[in-house]
UniProtKB/TrEMBL annotation:
GO terms for molecular function: antiporter activity. Its main location: membrane. This is Cation/H+ exchanger domain-containing protein. Residues 603-765 form the Cation/H(+) antiporter C-terminal domain.
Length: 775
């Protein structure tokens, strides 16, 4: 587009030029979409459905001649195409930036199989239907280009629509949600590649350009990597990069995208890979995510989806075209359904996800619009009626797919809910998702040490989150908004603390190559427990670690951080929908960070019995393979009880299986403890990975004596919170200070006892079927 025309002033007496009316159109789409979303959200519909409907309504208003003349002025199509390109460039870079690479690597095979199944089934079904469609609609011209255009458009999945919908449904942290996003991206990038290569082969002019732009994209990726590491060093005391430095990255991306588009080659894939290969750690990454996420998700994507609906028009279609439109929509969804179902069956994906996955992968709109705005318009068969049929197919299919997907979610809500809310039955080969909460750098260092220890199973996927809790005071000293204070370096909301937390996380990431995802929670103190619980559900974590409300001073004594934080811990323990761990950090005399050091730390897991102790021992499975951790299980057994030693003899048979003789009653809870500990013993103790000690006691006083004796031997104690009416802890609650830690945890955390180790107290998620008695 001519720059002079792009920024022209109104001609003559005209009040508006196409540029002004385009911005008014964007504002109308945002207003209409919010209106529709207010009514559709309670029904479970995602944002893109409301935004596309807003565009359709705006398109229908153009039936009025004055509205038509206002929005569709001379050269307005060029403005829409150019700004559509700008919007597309922004969100494709952000999609690459936010993509979960670890999950995509683990599920690469699944994504490829589903992509191939989808494309092959669509290609097979479209061969006979295209033959019928050409004769039914009397299409003439280049049939090869026609077939490629139809195949790419109607077999494609609009990844921006999938991502935005998955986020609205809060499935972006679930396995099926992330799989849908990965498959959508694979299908879209594959279709872009197929179309680009076919058109290049037909024209014979683009192949050299494609290789040149691929090389230029690689150069941009290396430049970004250099800038991402160099720019933070210029201002190490600043929390984020400056706005000018942020703009430099976007200018580089915009230059390469404009250059590619000038050669009639789609730049979507190139921009996506630039975002995908951007470094995932450090100040630069945090700055880009912070600056781009909100405006793109709240303004850019809604306007882009609204633009899809705005291009919907069926005024020129005849009855013959309506029939072709209906068949095209139906076959498009059926072809996707068959391909995805066959792939899911081959991959043994649970049946409850089959229909949802095929429905959400049927959404269209992104690449279809790109094709319509390309040099495809110069083909003889690409008449205005065919164009309207194309767009109507994309819009109707997307709306139907979105509605069907939301209905499937509502009818199978339990099947899509978070299931891994405790660790006892959590396989160490499955992904472990944990949330650590901190309200200062002091707690952050201790929590990062804990995360470092849990990252011991190298073959186990591990996703840690760190939530910075920032209490919001009721009386504000300034009228500035929070983000303005944060940018300016005001410490009212923990900005300086945040800088030190970022430095600690960056140090850990460089050493352990594990990314800690950061979340910031700014809320009133009384609302903090509810927000933490909501955040844990949205992030689908199995356990939340909270800091104890006291911290250790340099002289070894403890200082109270405030009763408000203690109340927060108590409320989270009651309300959380997952397991909870309270970490008493004694980083001076007890457990300290592992990364950057080679010293071995001794950890003791105390087992008295009950769901919480089993949960604590289950958590320790992720500590075992850490070379810097030596774990010892200390089992306390009631002296004089009917239950003899848990393990009497270990008999090794010819097949090297170890059998443990279990002696005791058939009481449900005791039997569960014995079975659990037996399996644990067979798996870890007999192989020499874990130490095992048995202590026989008759009352709480003897238990206290033993705890004092071993208090200096370990740097970290892991213990469950509650264990019911336990003889071995009887009388210990008479002098407890902090009931939220349980009797044993309270004793170990007390500053009056000679215990210098850190303590982790674990409470298992209370399922409705759990039967327990709190102490």
């Amino acid at each position: 587009m001519d720059p002079k025309m792009l920024f022209c002033l109104p001609e003559g007496d005209a009040l508006f030029n196409p540029l002004n009316t385009m911005f008014i159109q964007m504002a109308c789409i945002l207003v209409f979409s919010q209106f529709f979303y207010l009514f559709l959200k309670p029904c479970g519909q995602a944002g893109p459905v409301a935004q596309i409907l807003a565009g359709i309504v705006l398109s229908l208003l153009t039936i009025i001649q004055k509205v038509h003349d206002f929005f569709l002025q001379k050269d307005s199509a060029s403005y829409y195409i150019f700004f559509s390109f700008l919007l597309r460039t922004c969100f494709m870079f952000l999609i690459g930036l936010e993509l979960d690479l670890d999950f995509m690597k683990r599920n690469l095979r699944n994504s490829i199989v589903i992509t191939l199944g989808s494309l092959v089934s669509c290609a097979i079904i479209w061969i006979p239907f295209l033959w019928f469609l050409v004769r039914f609609l009397h299409i003439k011209g280049d049939l090869i280009t026609l077939y490629v255009a139809f195949l790419v458009t109607l077999s494609n999945t609009a990844s921006p629509v999938v991502i935005r919908s998955i986020i609205d449904w809060k499935l972006h942290t679930s396995e099926i949600g992330r799989l849908a996003i990965s498959c959508g991206l694979f299908i879209e990038i594959t279709n872009i590649f197929i179309y680009t290569m076919v058109i290049s082969y037909i024209s014979g002019k683009m192949i050299g350009d494609i290789f040149a732009y691929t090389f230029a994209t690689v150069v941009i990726i290396f430049i970004n990597r250099f800038l991402a590491s160099w720019l933070p060093k210029r201002n190490p005391k600043e929390k984020y990069l400056s706005k000018a430095e942020t703009l430099a990255f976007f200018i580089l991306i915009l230059i390469i995208a404009l250059t590619i588009e000038s050669s009639n080659i789609n730049s979507t894939g190139f921009v996506f890979f630039i975002g995908l290969m951007f470094p995932r750690e450090g100040k630069t990454y945090r700055t880009l995510i912070n600056r781009l996420s909100y405006p793109i998700h709240e303004f850019v994507l809604p306007v882009y989806f609204g633009y899809i609906g705005f291009r919907f028009s069926v005024h020129s279609l005849t009855a013959r075209h309506y029939l072709a439109l209906g068949m095209t929509v139906a076959l498009s969804m059926v072809a996707k359904l068959l391909g995805v179902l066959c792939a899911c069956l081959f991959l043994n994906i649970p049946k409850k996800y089959w229909l949802f996955l095929s429905a959400i992968l049927s959404v269209k709109g992104h690449i279809g619009l790109v094709l319509l705005d390309s040099n495809l318009t110069y083909k003889k068969w690409f008449t205005p009626i065919i164009q309207d049929t194309f767009i109507a197919t994309l819009v109707i299919t997307t709306l139907l797919s979105g509605v069907i997907s939301s209905l499937l979610l509502r009818t199978q809500e339990k099947g899509f809910s978070h299931q891994k809310t405790s660790l006892e039955f959590h396989d160490t080969k499955e992904e472990l998702r944990v949330l650590t909460c901190v309200y200062g750098v002091r707690q952050a260092r201790g929590m990062i040490s804990l995360v470092s220890a849990l990252n011991g199973v190298s073959s186990s996927p591990f996703t840690p989150y760190l939530m910075h809790l920032i209490p919001l005071s009721k009386k504000r000293k300034t009228e500035l908004l929070y983000h303005e204070l944060d940018e300016g370096g005001d410490d009212e909301f923990g900005t300086n603390e945040g800088l030190e937390i970022n430095d600690s996380i960056d140090s850990f990431t460089r050493d352990r190559k594990v990314m800690i995802r950061q979340v910031k929670l700014v809320a009133l103190m009384e609302n903090m427990p509810e927000e933490i619980c909501n955040g844990s559900e949205d992030l689908r974590v199995s356990i939340v670690f909270l800091p104890f409300h006291k911290h250790q001073r340099i002289d070894g004594k403890t200082t109270d951080d405030g009763e408000a934080f203690r109340d927060m811990n108590r409320k989270v323990l009651k309300q959380a929908q997952c397991s909870i761990g309270i970490f008493v950090d004694r980083n001076i005399t007890g457990f300290h960070q592992l990364h950057g050091f080679e010293s071995v730390q001794h950890v003791a897991a105390l087992f008295f019995g009950g769901p919480d102790d089993r949960e604590a021992l289950s958590l320790c499975q992720w500590l075992i393979d850490n070379a810097q951790i030596h774990l010892t299980i200390i089992q306390f057994v009631a002296d004089g009880s009917d239950t003899d030693n848990l393990v009497r003899d270990a008999v090794t048979k010819e097949n090297n299986d170890v059998l443990m003789e279990i002696v005791g009653n058939d009481q449900t809870n005791d039997e569960t403890d014995r079975t659990f500990l037996e399996e644990y013993y067979n798996r870890y103790v007999t192989t020499g990975q874990v130490g095992f000690i048995e202590k026989r006691v008759s009352n709480g006083e003897q238990t206290l004596t033993i705890l004092r004796e071993i208090g200096e031997m370990y740097s970290l104690f892991v213990v469950g919170k509650n264990r019911g009416n336990c003889l071995m802890t009887s009388g210990m609650s008479d002098w407890e200070e902090c009931p939220e830690l349980g009797t044993v945890g309270d004793f170990l955390a007390s500053s009056n006892m000679d215990v210098n180790a850190s303590v982790l107290v674990v409470q298992r998620h209370r399922h409705s079927f759990d039967i327990f008695v709190d102490e």
